[in-house]
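Internal ticket #5521
Category: modeling
Description: The requester needs a full-assembly model to guide mutagenesis choices. All entity lines are attached below as received. Residue total reported by intake: 660.
Assigned to: D.W.
Attached entities:
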Amino acid sequence: MGEKVVKMGSFSFRITFIRIVLLLVALFGASIMLYRLIFGLGAATNLNDSWPFGLWIAVDVMLGVALAAGGFTTAGLVYIFNLKEYKPLAKPAILTAWLGYLLVIVGLGMDVGLWYNWWRPIFNWGYTSVLFEVFICVLAYNVVLLVEFLPVLSKRFNWKKVYEVSTFVAIPAVIAGIILSSMHQSSLGALFLIMPEKMNPLWYTSLLPWLFLLSAIAVGPAMVTFESFLASRTYNMEFEKDILGRLIKGVALISAVYVALKLWDLEARGYLSALFDGTLASNMFLVELALFIIPTLLIIFNSKRLSQKTIVAGAVLIVAGVVVNRLNVLFMGLYQAAHMSYFPALTEFAVTFGIISMGCLAYLFIVENFEVFTHEEVKLPKESAPVMTISRGSKQESF
Amino acid sequence: MLIDITKCIGCRSCQVACKSWNGLDNETTSFTNDITNPPQMSAKTYTVVNFIETRLHDKPIWRFIKRMCMHCTDPACASACFAKAITKRESGAVVYDKTTCVGCRYCMLACPWWIPKYEWDSVFPAVKKCRFCIDLLEHGKEPACATACPSAIKFGDREEMLALAKKRIAKNPDKYVQHIYGEHEAGGTNVLYLSDVPFTSLGLPAVSSEPLPKLTWDALAKVPYLAGGVGLTMTAMYLFTHRKNAVAEAQREKIIDKAGE
């Protein structure tokens, strides 16, 4: 493939065919966003009074948040559990989480009707609303993720003071990130608790917050595994089979707990037999369940000798499981109660794919221009960095 | 407000009064299988009389049911609003205010009766729903629909209306269904229905008597413990996993100190 490199100052960006496609999709998405802002939701979406939440909430927000769970899970493993072998995964995971959450805000901004009022809840505390908690947590977590990623940014730009401060607060930031994440990941499930009559009983359970949290914890590292695989192919790096193999075993374990909890909950509520009704909803529930059970068994039965293929397949299936789950909760969950039908408009898809493309491009750009993959750092002699003197001991980890 | 289905003649005066008092635009109408018109509530129609063909004592009959916001005593929409744009007023009315609304539309999902509607055609849309003619209420007057109704609507305090409804049922136990819709639904509503045919046949969904905000509040009430628990566990875990390093470092420093001496 012919390669061109665009340079701007000290930054450079390789241009490949895939990147041109991503750029076009992103630009198209951006123009549709502009269209939505000028002409309103009715013109740009197929949303209606029965479907106030549609594709953007389901994918850009609910899925975006779930799939960005790699940030707090990996940061926790490395900085809190002190499992140093996962360290090469931390920075890329935090980067994808940060970009993911920024794009969640873009998606939300597109979806809300009166976007200029976005700041109102900061002063008008609608604290009885689950959404209030989600809103505050997502806002705060965006700041936390920025702080967690600042060492990388400030190193590149030589902001010594910022680097010192951000590495100094790294551990509290990671802990805050884990708290905020467990709060809003679970609360995204709690959002649906207010609709006991509307929601399909297969999905409506008081355990929704716990199921959302557990699946987020499972899908975070799975997403990190998948991203590592993509990165290893893109940048000709080694696929860290040992590390990712251990990580995916953890994922399988959490996934097993998740499936067991889900089945136990169905059994306790008396809906286990309803799984085999043959309706669209029950079949979709089975698909969702299979997407968790198959990778879990795949990994557990091959746990002695995990090949790259098994690891990646397991990760992809778990990710697919969470994708189907989040879409199911919203669309299958409310399908039988809605009076009107809804299928996302092409313009809605355009915005969603545009946002995803923007994320991919931003990731590629940052990875290529900032020190995200830590391979070189390992070789650095320990005393060489002057900042180490103020941030001693464990804080070195955040370097 | 008490709406007695057995007394409703389907004149739609309430619909007209609502439109004119609230200054709502007219809608392009379309032909439907029944005579309900417009076919459903929307951002331009706060109340609509549904014309329903059903059966009573094995004979086909028509019943007319005025649908509108139920004005719950503990409204799900208001609890779902994260910007306090929907509030429960002293008069019992549940009222929306656009100034603080972000437009997330969670209220529309939260309502078990699908009452809040959205101005989809607008660039800066508002949520639209019956506001119980709060301006009239505050001047001691009845909502426009109640004033306009020739037969079915009685307006007054909730307790009064409940008493009246119970009296009517007691007087005509064979005629009425032994249930006041809204007495307990969603924790109780300010709009109450009496009927001689089952409420489900009128399109009113079965709603549990538990106030809906309690469901999410129960979950939210656990969040501080979750946050505290996670925070403490993570801090403890951090201190624990890093103790080894600290011990090793301390020992090394000790050795260096001794060597210095």
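Resolution: model delivered.
Comment from assignee: The mean pLDDT of chain B is 93.
Ticket closed.
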